[in-house]
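Worked example 2:
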Amino acid sequence: MDTTAHQQARAGSNDTWESIMESFKNAAKEGPTHWCWCFDRLWFNFSLTKLHKSALKAKGLRDAFLGTVFGFEDSESGEFCGTCARHIMVGGVPRMCLNNGLRFPIVPACLTDLTCLEERCVAVRIPFMQIHSLGIDRQVGLKGCIIVFLWT
C-alpha cells in the first residue's frame, strides 16, 4: 500500500485516541506468548509464519528433515519465526534448532529434591555475581565472575 492511500485510509477512520490506546493496551497485554517450533523461544503472534508439512513435502523436502525441524511435535503444521522459516524453505536446518544439541536435558528425579547447599556442592559452575544498578534509568548490570570446578 502506498503512502497516500495509507494516509487516506487513516484520515477516513473514525478511531478516537481512546480506542487506539485501548487496542494498543490489549495487544501489549497479550505479549509474546506464541513459540517457534524449531527455536523454542517466545514470539508475538504476528512474528510467526505457519508452515505445513504437506506444502514442504511438495517442495521436495524429506520426512527426516521435517522431523528434525518440527521437533518432537506430531502435527501437520507449525509456527516458526522468520529466521527458522527462511532456513526451512531453502532446505536448511536453522543454526538455533533445538535438535542441533541445544535442547535442555531432562533433569533426573534425584536432582530435583536437592537443597541449595547440595546444589552448590555438586555444581560444575558457581556464579559469584552481584546485580548492580547502572545509573538512574533502572538498568542493571552484572559484576563478578564464574568459578569453574574441574573434577579429576
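The first strand starts at residue 34 and ends at 35. Helices lie at 3-11, 17-30, 53-58, 63-69, 82-89, 109-112, 116-122.
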